[in-house]
Amino acid sequence: MGQFGLLWFLFLSILGYECLPKGVSGLAVNLGLQCTHPLPSKIMVRLLKDNGFDKVKLFEADPAALKALGKSGIQVMVGIPNDMLAFLASSPGNAEAWVQQNVSSYISKYGTDIRLVAIGNEPFLHSYKDMFVQTTFPALQNVQAALIKAGLSKQVKVTVPLNADVLQTDSGLPSGGDFRPDIRVLMINIIKFLQNNGGPLTINIYPFLSMQADPNFPKEFAFFNNTASPVVDGSITYTNVYDANFDTLIATLEKNGFGQMPVIVGEVGWPTDGEPNANIDNARRFNQALLNRIIQGQGTPKRRTPPDVYIFSLIDEDNKSLAPGNFERHWGIFNYDGSIKYPLDMGNRKAIVPAKGVKYLAKQWCVLSPSASISDPNVLAQSISYACQNADCTTLGYGSSCGNLDAQRNASYAFNMYYQTMNQTRDSCSFNNLAAITTVDPSQPPCRFEIMIDTRNQELASSSNKSSTARIESLLTALFLVLALVICGFH
Q1: Are strands 201-204 and 263-268 parallel, antiparallel or unpaired?
Q2: Catalytic residue among 96, 220, 267, 328
C-alpha cells in the first residue's frame, strides 16, 4: 500500500469516516476500451471512484487498466473475448498461462481486486451461428481448474455473460420462459458447473435493442417510469421490459431446478447518438430511473433482492464495430474524454462529475475551406467518404446529433473527425486542398466538433507528477499523524 496509503487508511479509521461525505455504494459499470484516444487509466479509475462505482467489468485483460485498478477499492470482472475461447478450451495449460498472466499477477503485484472472470461475451448469440457453442463450456472448465490450481478459486469466480436470446417463451410471458431447444442441454450443464463452483450467471438486458428490433414494440414499455399498458402474467403485473426479461430468466432457472441461482445483470443502458431513438433525453430518462432502482435496492417481481447491475457503459468508444448500428459507439454515460453528457443523480443527490486532469490536442479544427473550389463534386464526396472510413462519423446519420448540418458543415465534420483521429497532423487536413485549419469552434449544438485527447501529453504529465506526488506524500504523512493525535484527544 505504501507509507502514505497506509497512514491515510489508518487516519480514516481513527476518524470513523465521520468527516467524509456519505456516498452510495454498490454501483457497477462496464468499461470498454475500443477508443482511438483512450482516457488514461489513472484518470479513468478516478472517474469511477468520484462517481461512486465500486465494481467494473472489463471486456478484456487490459494491462494498463488492471494496474491502475490495483488497490483502488474497486472490484473487477475481467472478460475473455470470444475469439480466445478455442485457445483456452484446447488445453488446460493454455488456461493456466492465461490465469497466471491476467489474474494472478495483477492480484499479487498490484493488489487488483479481481472477483470474476467472464468466459466470453454472449457466445450463444443466434448471429454467431454456433461458432462458440463447442468451446465455451470447455474454456469455462479449464479456467476454473486454473483458478483452483493458482489457489484463487475462493476469491475469483467464473461466469458466462449471456444475451437474452438464449431464452424463449412460447406464451410470450415471463412464466413461459425456457432455454432455446438448441442449447438447452448445454445451458443446464453450464449452470450446474457454475453452481457447483460458486459462480453466478450473467445476463445482458437491452430494452433499447428490444425496441429497435420490433417496429410494433411499445416504446414506453422500454422505460421504467412509463405510461405503457402493463403485461399481466398470472398474479404478476409487469410494467417494463427490463423486469419482464429478467424474470423470464428467473422463471427459466426455476423450471430447470436452479431457483436459487445467483444472477448478475452484466449490461444494461441506453445510447445517446447514432439513431433517432438514441438521444440524450431518452438516455437520461432510462439511466436515471435505472440508477434510482439500484440505489433504492429494488428488485423484480420474482426476485425482490436486487442483483448487481453493470451499467453499459462508462464512456463512448469511437473505434467499436458498427455491425449492430451507428449507436454502438455511443453507450457511455460520459463522452469519450470523460466529460458529462447529461446530468445524473448518482445517489444521495450527488451529481455526476467529469474526469479530471484530461489534456487535449490544440484548440483547432479542420473544416471545408471557404475558398475551396469544388469543380468536381465527386472529389468532395470521395474526400468525405475517405474521412469517414478512417474516423467516426456516426453522429452524421439521420436523426443523430449532427444529422441536420448543411452540406458545408457536413463535410467539415467529416474532415475534422479524421484530423483529430490522426492527432492533428498537418497533412491530415488537406483533402485535395479542400480543407483548412481554423481556431474558431465550428460546433453547432447539439452537434459537437471534437478535439481529441493528447495521449502523449497525458503520459508526460503522469511521469512529471510522480516526483511531486512523492514530496506531497511526505508532507501529508506528518500532517495526518498530527491530526490523528489531536482528534484522538491528546489533551
Answers
A1: parallel
A2: 267
Alpha carbon 228 to its chain centroid, in Å, reads: 29
Q: Enter the C-alpha cell of residue 27.
A: 454501483
**Active-site residue (options: 18, 60, 96, 122):** 122
What is the 3-state secondary structure of 174-205? HHHEEECCCCHHHHHHHHHHHHHCCCCEEEEC
Q: Which of 195, 135, 206, 125 is nearest to 166 (CA)?
A: 125
Separation of alpha carbons 159 and 191, rounded Å = 9
SS3 433: coil
Tell me if the pTM is above 0.85: yes
**What are the backbone angles phi and psi of residue 311, rounded to the nearest 5°?**
-65, 140
Examine the residue annotation and report whether 328 is marked as an active-site residue of this protein. Answer: no
Identify the three-state secondary structure at position 348.
coil
Beta-ladder partners of 58: 31, 78
* The three cell numbers locating residue 77: 470482472
* DSSP assignment letter at 371: T
Q: Most distant CA pair in the chain: distance in Å? A: 86
Report how far apart the first and last C-alpha atoms of the chain are (Å, whole number). Answer: 31
Examine the residue annotation and report whether 473 is marked as an active-site residue of this protein.
no
Q: What share of the chain is helix, strand, coil (3-state, %, to 5)?
A: 40, 15, 45
Condensed to tens digits (0 to 9), the pLDDT of residues 17-57 reads 333 333 334 799 999 999 999 999 999 999 999 999 999 99
Which residues touch 357 (CB under 8 Å, ≥6 apart)? 43, 46, 461
